[in-house]
Amino acid sequence: MVRQIQRAMVVGAMAMLAACSSARRAEPPGVAPVAIPPADAAQLAAALTLAENQPAVIDFVSLDQRLRDAAAREGFTRVLPHPMS
User: 57-66 pLDDT, tens per residue?
Assistant: First the structure.
């Protein structure tokens, strides 16, 4: 059972890396990456994986403004919570 859990974690990590790699390749030239902590990058990669690299189909939720900015930059159109005006 432990080996199955470890394998699932490795497969999940590989999927997140693949999502990050494909997102990076799709980046327009001349656009600088947004600096976010590794845990936030993992959350963003997991969301991209969940959305099957079609980020407009799901909501992205975070209380961190930098992470919301990065999510919007990756193509998430429904980034919550919305900034208060």
Answer: 899 999 898 9
